[in-house]
Amino acid sequence: MCGCVRVEQDLVLQPNGSGHLHIVYGVKEQDLARMRQMTEQMAALDPSLAPSDVDWLTAFDSAVIRREWDKMDHDGVRLDDVVTETRDGWKYMKAKIAFESLQHLLDCGVLSDGHISLTRGPGGQFGYQQTFDIMGAAKSLPRGVDMATIQPVLTMMMRDFHARLAVQAPGNILRSNADRVEGRKAIWEYSGGQNDLMTRLQNIDIRMMFDGRGMTISDARSSGR
User: Fold this and answer.
1) Contact, 11 vs 23, CB < 8 A?
2) Per-residue pLDDT tens for 78-112?
3) Angle at CA 74, nearest 5°, toward 72 and 77?
4) Are 205 and 195 in contact (CB under 8 A)?
5) What is residue 207's three-state secondary structure?
6) If you ran DSSP here, which 8-state letter would residue 122 be given?
7) What angle is formed at CA 25 by the lines to CA 189 and CA 90, rounded to 5 degrees?
8) pTM score of the predicted model
9) Max CA-CA distance within the chain?
């Protein structure tokens, strides 16, 4: 959730449980060197972050992204397309990933930042939930520093931040806590221009219920939950 980042995530579910995920990830060119330095420092402190992770996050090179993709366990998941471009002072990565089931997508680790679940209800309806543990990340802050302490600084940094998360259901949406619904697509947006942005980022809990009667969709859940 860096202030110099723009993120778009469009998840499309089909009646047979398959689907595709569109991801757009953008970083300001002037902030990219600083971002790479910060990522390298994090990798030096966190054994789970390999040098290849630094490339994955900061290279904006389609060949590097494909190379890292080939290292992942992606049974039932396919990288259909990935392109990178520079536009108006921003570097962008755009990827389209197809999956046989949502569980296949979750198992491959592409959506590892948070928890996702898809469960069928007794009446054939499906509930989709996606949450992010922002407060968990705050545990790595230096001693004596918490979210309340750094919130004024973060608010200033987040002026250029924008995230758009969308889920397109295969059936009619029955209920959601989305910012808006367009047909069968529920959309949540987080922007630096929102006065309550920091509060919203600390409590990201996306929920949607849709009609799944007659559909062959399997339940799915992030590993470890």
Assistant:
1) no
2) 999 999 998 888 889 899 999 999 999 998 877 76
3) 140
4) no
5) strand
6) T
7) 105
8) 0.78
9) 54
